[in-house]
Design a protein that fits this description.
The protein is of the alpha/beta class. The chain is elongated. The protein folds into two domains: 219 residues, 3-Layer(aba) Sandwich (Rossmann fold), CATH 3.40.50; 266 residues, Ribokinase (UDP-N-acetylmuramoyl-L-alanine:D-glutamate ligase).
Length: 507
């Protein structure tokens, strides 16, 4: 699914009106109808509804919602906020329609002091600004936002399109914004809905189809995307009848140190369960028995060092390195000076895309010159703190997203920034958000599992872009299956591995 800017959404509306064809009022009726259907399905008519409407088209949506709720027997009041001396034409037309049918449902607000008293447990619908806002809320409307936010604990707040005050394409972190429990947005995600800084403002997000013209949606280019099952099915490569273990590649996993062998085991098991043909693990001597017992399907070579690895580069001369389709490096590796030197030498000798995670990223942060040594097309998988240590701090999530994209382009790497909507920046400037996954995956070892999955997919011959998109999706999907089986609280990184099979079966 593409992510469109606020300007592109307006263009999509206009394109639909011209080419369906359909009137703007009919399109508004369609959008409001989708919202009303959602409200019918989530709340019964026993709870009073207060729809706060701005003077533009988002307010027009709200006026239609009030009328449709009244049609179904709900006690719905449209509270019209006169923040402007002029209403949009569609707003005015829908106000007149509501006045004709349900004149008692209109309540006008000209100042904060006009704010109505709401019965406990009311449904509050925020249809004030939506994506129509291009600057911070000012004046007495700021007081309205504060009033609505003060009521959030005692009422249920639903935002239409976007919570009022939230900018679609830029940070609103220091601005007054309505805090919603649920956001009903239309057709496609807006970038703001995917930013961690807005989580408390948007609540649970629902994307409702309103029938925008498919030609606009398919033909209009977008820099940002959200991955979905349909996209993954075009990437996934089914196995062929005469395939053998050599078909699916030989991967090298460099991982583990004293006290951190669990990370190496999790990554190895994930790599095996994600379909690698052959796996060799390079571990320090202290990890030999651990790996042989915990991952018997993997081969194991040991470093001369007892507690950490410092010689994993030695078997990677150009003649020997070709046997490995890829290398995953970092889980539990440690950051000893000798380990860092070995990583430098490995990157000088091995020229195919690799997967870099965890302590390998921490070494990059300590020795930034190593970034330029990483083979093009490699996959980096930092969490936000690792990203900050390597690439510097930023003022907000939008600025961090831009830096993520710039660095991926500059270094010609795929950088996967972990989070609720993991952001995957590509060398061509495109950014993909992964929608699978849940908070139960915020547990030790989950990232090591991802490293194993990505390493397996690269070894099997997936192109780096396909590997990182499919790997992130499968990782999150396996986490969703684990949460459904065990709960978010009880799941562990091991259960994510156990659910990789069902995740593959869904594709």
């Amino acid at each position: 699914m593409k992510i469109f800017s606020a300007a592109q959404i307006r263009e999509a509306d206009a394109y639909t009106i011209r080419h369906e064809p359909i009137s703007s009022l009919q399109l508004m009726e369609r959008a409001a109808g989708a919202c009303a259907q959602w409200l019918y399905g989530h709340f019964d008519a026993s709870r009073p509804c207060y729809i706060f409407c701005g003077m533009g088209n988002n307010g027009g949506d709200g006026l239609v919602i009030a009328r449709l709720l009244q049609d179904k027997g709900y006690q719905a009041t449209a509270c019209v906020l006169h923040h402007s001396s002029k209403a949009s034409a569609d707003h005015q037309a829908n106000r007149e329609a509501l006045e004709r049918q349900y004149p008692q449902s209109l309540y006008d607000i000209h100042a904060v002091t006009d704010f109505p008293e709401l019965p406990a447990g009311s449904i509050i619908v925020d249809a004030i600004f939506g994506t129509g806002l291009s600057r911070p809320i000012e004046g007495w409307m700021t007081g309205i936002v504060h009033k609505l936010n003060d009521l959030q604990a005692r009422h249920t707040v639903i935002a239409i399109d976007l919570p009022s005050g939230l900018l679609a394409d830029a940070s609103s972190v220091l601005m007054p914004v309505v805090h919603a429990h649920h956001t009903l947005s239309f057709e496609v995600y807006k970038l703001a809905l995917l930013m961690p800084e807005n989580a408390a403002r948007t609540g649970q997000v629902y994307i409702l189809s309103i029938g925008l013209h498919p030609a606009y949606l398919t033909q209009t280019p977008a820099r940002f995307h959200v991955t979905d099952a349909a996209m993954m099915r075009t990437i996934y490569q089914p196995r062929q009848p005469f395939a053998h273990k050599g078909t699916f590649g030989h991967a090298l996993l460099v991982a583990g140190s004293y006290g951190k062998m669990g990370a190496a085991v999790l990554s190895a098991q994930a790599c095996l369960h994600a379909g690698v043909g052959l796996l060799t693990c390079h571990v320090p001597q202290c990890g030999y028995l651990v790996m042989q017992i915990s991952a018997p399907c993997a081969m194991c070579i040991t470093d001369p060092q007892e507690a950490y690895s410092a010689h994993f580069h030695e078997g990677l001369s150009p003649a020997e390195a070709v046997k490995y389709k890829t290398i995953g490096i970092g889980p539990g590796l440690g950051t000893a000076t000798a380990t860092a030197k070995a990583l430098e030498l490995l990157l000088e000798q091995y020229q195919q895309p690799v997967v870099i995670d965890a302590d390998a990223l921490n070494i990059m942060a300590a020795y930034p010159f190593l970034l330029s040594r990483i083979p093009p097309g490699s996959l980096l998988t930092p969490h936000p703190k690792e990203f900050e240590r390597i690439f510097g701090s930023t003022r907000n999530d939008f600025e961090r997203l831009e830096r993520l994209s710039q660095q991926a382009t500059q270094l010609q790497l795929y950088i996967l920034l972990k989070g609720r909507y993991t952001a995957i920046a590509c060398p061509d400037g495109a950014v993909y958000f992964n929608a699978t996954g849940n908070p139960g995956m915020a547990t030790g070892g989950s990232g090591d599992v991802l490293t194993g999955i990505l390493t397996a997919l690269l070894a099997q011959g997936y192109a780096p872009k396909a590997a990182v998109l499919l790997g992130a999706y499968l990782h999150g999907l396996a986490g969703d299956i684990a949460a459904a089986r065990l709960s978010q609280e009880a799941m562990t990184a091991e259960t994510i591995i156990d659910c990789l099979g069902p995740a593959f079966l869904q594709l």
